[in-house]
Amino acid sequence: MLDEYRNGTDPFIYPNTNWFDVMYRNAPIQEHNLRLSGGGEKTTFSLSFGYLNQDGVLIATDAKKYTLNSNVQSDLNSWLKIGANLAGTFWNDRESAYTADEGNGEGGIMGLLYRGLPMQVPYAQDGSYADQWVRVPGHNFFRNPLALSYEGFRRNHRYRTLANVFAEVKLPLNLTYKITAAANIFFGREKYAYPQISLTNPKTGVVTPMGNIPARGVKQIATEGVNLTNFHTLNFTRQFGDHSVNALAGFSMERFDDSDFDAYNQGYLGNELNELDAGSTAPAVGGTSSQSRLQSYFGRINYSFRDKYIFEANVRYDGSSRFANGKRWGLFPSFSGAWRLNRENFLAEASWIDNLKLRASWGQLGNQNIPLYSYVNAISLGNNYSFNNNVVPGTAIIQLADPSISWEKTTMTNIGVDFDILQGKLAFQLDLFDKTTSEILRQVNVPAQVGNLTGPFRNIGKVSNKGIEVSLAYQDAIGDFRYRVGGNLAYLKNEVLDVKGNIYYDGVTIIRKGDPISAFYGLQSAGIFQNEAEIEQHAFQAANTRPGDIRYVDQNQDGIVDNNDRIVIGNSIPKYTYGFTLSGSYKNVDLDLFFQGVADVDTYANGNLAFPYRNGAGVTNEWLTDSWTPENPGARLPILTTSSGYPQNFLTSDFWIKDASYLRLKNIQLAYSLPGAWLERLHIRRFKVFVNAQNYLTFTDFKLGDPERNLTRANMIDYPNYKSITAGVNLTL
User: Fold this and answer.
1) Arithmetic mean of pLDDT over the chain
2) How many Å apart are CA 364 and CA 412, to the nearest integer?
3) How would DSSP label each residue in 12-66?
4) Portion of the chain with pLDDT greater than 70, in percent
5) Has residue 193 been placed in a domain?
6) Terminus-to-terminus CA distance in the chain, angstroms?
7) Within a domain: residue 672?
8) Rounded CA gap, 717 and 657, in Å?
9) Cβ neighbourhood burial of 71 (10 Å; 0-12, 13-18, 19+)
10) Which of 67, 327, 381, 640 has its CA 20 to 30 A from that of 82?
11) Does 73 fall in a domain?
């Protein structure tokens, strides 16, 4: 077969398909915005409209967005001000039904894309969708990604409206009372049409239905959510000579009501039928609803003396229904102060100092971001059991709960300095920070021996983030040319301080006292075995270890390499985060560049393409050119095998840790503004044309995908962070 394929000339039978070229495309985007504003002495208003039409870089995907925003404010008299805001957004997008809801764990279209093989072809000779004529492990069925993209659909309609009204009343004694009421309303409808697809064998012409995909059917999901919010605040402002005082007290109530309804049907006579009642078999319905509440009391006081000594104190007392009675309330205070040294008499003659301010702050914030009802055991219907020799309906606990969980609390301490000199040309900022998060909310695993239950959410421990951040900027002008150069750099040390005596494992990561949180945990590699003598002299790894295999370090020196030899092998949290900007303008031309990056950070990838022939996927070119053979003993990679049939080379180890550092040009924009004299003749206030590029350049050693990703996610199935080039016009009348 190898010779046949090597000598074959028909591109449909003997293809060399690049599935990324087949499935990705350059996609157009157009966006239009119009804003109208006006009013008089006491009343102002604004009205804006927006339209976005965007094709996806993945074929057969697109989205449209429509927006409407309106705002009106009016001073009815000297003591009463009212206002209202209405914002509406409507999304309408389309993708393959298999993209978001593939139902078999392969990752949908993106997963199939990463499993695609060069020997598979999208179309047969007659233009029909192609099957594969060679069956290989992991591809007993060929789920043609192109066919699944164009046939069937997932259509998603989302409508969100945010309505806000307020009234502000001026009271005696420098008091101002404000009441705000808001409603955030969401309606959504998803519709999946699962097709039946026929594939043509390009060699034999035999037509067969595509296998291992959802049966032809229709699923529809309706969701709705209503978030009602009510805020009341009382504000006091007073100037006492050189002393300025501002105080605020208030409370808020928030209510969240969410529900969904879904229906499914099968038994359709054709793919073009996609209404629920057109099906005839296996109808099913379902639905859920939920409610939650959040109530808060808060206060703030600001004090300033001659704008030289500045102090602020805040306090919040929040209650959340996401926790059990007795655990729902948390108190979160904060304090900050600043000293403007340049306003002191001893620096009065230092005219070159524009601003010199010392800052310090300490505060606490709470986090309640866990699923609803996490404090009670989750019970599932449909867990039938045998009783008296009959199968009867039953329920069972499927997820454990910890009723003692409460607020996660983050305590932040910051000391900083702001220093501006040379008439604002040079600006410098330095911050030292200590951020400690205690009672961290995390879902933990439980041993399968206790019933294979989903683990509970718990307050598992305390994590410290300490570091320093520095920013520096310089701006000046040379004739008509103005420029600005700025940059910032932050160093972060992350460490788990306490896990209450436990160790938490989650796939390839670990949470353990003394290590960074979610650190990669595995074996340490020490090169590649070159011959049998090296294997015999080393600790035992596996009975079939052979030259070309990865050599692992026996950390405890017991003569056996096993799980007891695992250590921390990588860090999923960047130690360095940085960015810099370059801006310049000459007369009416402006150029702006923004770069951002991270350094000293790792990721662990073991999915399709990361490991050879994983799950039926192919291999990257480096495995064909740089894997170990007796003739290539200095290769970087071990001997080429399948990851499932020969697992010892694909154990979790630092051999597969990848450097995820990157530097990316996030944004570059070139713009030209019409001269003022031209605008006057045209009765235009502003006319600006621009060209903008986002994510256009990336510098990284990570070659398996986008480094700006979830670094603890082992597989590579991610929608790409695409590049975009935009040209547009800003016009103000």
Assistant:
1) 91
2) 6
3) TTS----HHHHHB----EEEEEEEEEEE-SSEEEEEEEEEEEEE-SBTT-EEEEE
4) 99
5) yes
6) 71
7) no
8) 17
9) middle
10) 67
11) yes
